[in-house]
Amino acid sequence: MRSLLCAAGAAGMVLCAAVAPAAADEPDGFKIGDTRITESSGLAASRVHPGIYWTHNDSDDGPYVYAVDAESGRTVATLTLRGIGAPRDVEAVSIGPDGNIYVGDIGDNRGGTWDHVWIYRFPEPKRLRDATVTAAQFTVTYADGPRDAEALMVHPKTGRVYIASKKQDGGGALYEGPPRLSASGTNTFRRVSPIDLWVTDGAFSPDGTRLALRSYFGGRMYRWQDGRPKDLGSVSVPFQGQGESVTFAPDGRTLMYGSEGPNSEVEPVGLTGDQLPDSARDAAPGDGGNGDAGKGDTGKGGGSGQPGDSGAAGASGDPGAQPGFGKGAVLLLGIAALVVALRKLVRRSK
Question: What residue stretch is flagged as signal peptide (predicted)?
Answer without folding.
Answer: 1-22
